[in-house]
Amino acid sequence: MRERELVIVGGGPAGLAAAVSAAENGVKDILLLERDQYLGGILNQCIHTGFGLHHFKEELTGPEYAERFIRQIMGLKGVEVSLKSFVVSLNRNKELAYLKPGASESVKARALIMATGCRERTREMVHIAGTRPSGIYPAGLAQKMINIEGWLPGRGVVIIGSGDIGLIMARRFTLEGARVGGHRDTKRKPRPGAQCGAMPGGF
Q: Which of 72, 86, 145, 153 has the least CB density, counted as fewest CB within 10 Å?
């Protein structure tokens, strides 16, 4: 079993930043595992601007922000990126087994960073009634459908929640020609800036 100085599980924004920082601080053998076919994680489906203001002093889209880190990663010595690599086991000795196309690999890490991000709550977790309600999507899934898969989930939309992602998706659906017929929230007053007129291409 090969030993690596540092193994990072997850190639999203946290994993990319960790790899860059580790390399810049003297770590010379880094393995970065990402289960998707691309680095960048959630950033790849966040095509709106608002990223990079603090780190790069520029307003970037999610993919642009990820690309800055990916270019840094590719320019560093000692960083190996393994895409389509899914970790299936990990023990207390920091020994990992992972699957990648056509192979099963094992590695022992001297240091390990778990940068696996988060998952959206399922329909059951947010208490949507019914056994198989059609046409109800978590915001992140709808965002992925439109921005990555190129598929519009519907032409008439009602959005629940006035947080950032709800407003972003209302705008995104509107730009794609869908009719946002309502925006609902449990709060009596919308968040500041959440009024329809505050959104470009308002709904």
A: 86
